Please model this.
Amino acid sequence: MFSFEVLPPLKGTGTEALFRTIDLLKEYNPSYINITTHRSEYVYTPQDNGTFLRSRIRRRPGTIAVASAIMQKYNIKVVPHVLCSGFSREDIEYMLLDLQFLGINDILVLRGDKAKDDSRFRPEPDGYSYATELIGQINKFNSGKFYDGTDIRIPGTPFSYGVACYPEKHEEAPNMESDLRVLKLKQDLGASYAVTQLFYDNKNYFSFVERARKAGITIPIIPGIKPLTKKSQLNVVPKTFHVDIPKELADEARKLNTDEEVAQLGIEWGLNQCKELLKEGAPSLHFYTVSAVNSINEIAKQLF
Ligand code: FAD
Model:
C-alpha cells in the first residue's frame, strides 16, 4: 500500500507537471493522493514616501480545486490538507463546506508552516495556534455545529482525518515526550492515523513508533519518504525539515560529481528504506513527490 503527496502548481505554471506525476504513479495503484495547502504570504513594496505597502499574495491555486480536479480525472481518493496557518475559523468553515459539497471526506489536519518572513508561527487573529485546536472545529462540524455554535441543518458525512508527526521531533517541541503528548492528544481527539515527516534513517522511525506505542498511541504511523535527488539537498533538507541525513548516505553523496549520480544513490537508499519498513510492518508508505517523482517511480517499479 502506498500514497503520495503533490503540491498545487505555482500560479502561472501549467498543470502538466502535476498530472505527469499522477500519470506516472497511478500505475502502481495508490490508495490516495494528498494535496498540500500553502498559506498566503505578505510582500512589502517600497513607496515613494519611504513607507512600505503590505499586500497579500497567494502563489498557488486552491487545494480544494486541485483535489477536486484530481478526483474527477483519476477517480482516486484525495486527501487535501487543512491548515491553521493563514486561515481564520470562517475560512476553515468555508473550506469544510466546499469539501463536503464535493464529497471529499478525508483530510490531513495540520498547523501549517509559518509565513516566510516571520521568525515564528503566528496564528491569524481569528485562527488557531495548534492543529489540535483546528481538530476541535472539525469535530464540532462533524457533530452538526458551525463554529459559532449554530446548528448545521443538514449535516453531511463526517470528516475523517490524519495528522502529522515527527520521528526526529518537531523543531519547536522542547523534547520528544512533549511532542508525543501532542500526538496522543491528536489521537484522543479523533485522528485515525499519523503521517511522519520525511526521514532517511529508519532507526529513527522504528524507535519513534516504539516510544509512541509506549505512550499509548495506537493509530497507524505511516512513514514519509522523499528520496535524495540533488547534492544541494545535503544542506537544504536538514535546514528545511529539521531531520538528519545519516553519515553513510551523506558521505556517499559527497563523493559523487553529478546530481544524476546523487539521484541514483537516492533511489537505492530510498528503496532499501522502503523494503525494510515494509518488512518490519510499516502500515504503508507515503511519498513526498516534489522534485523526486522520477526517483519514486523507479522505487515503486521495484516495490509494487
Ligand atoms: P502541531 O501539531 O500544532 O504542532 C506544532 C508544535 O506545537 C509542535 O512542536 C508541537 O509539539 C506543539 N504543540 C502542538 N499542540 C500543542 C499544544 N496544545 N500545546 C503546546 N504545544 C503544542 N505545512 C504546510 O504549510 N502545508 C502543508 O500542506 C503541509 N503538509 C504536511 C504534511 C505532513 C505529513 C507533515 C509531516 C508536515 C506538513 N506540513 C505542511 C508542515 C507542518 O505544517 C509543520 O511541520 C508545522 O510546523 C507543524 O504542523 P503540525 O500539524 O505538526 O502542528
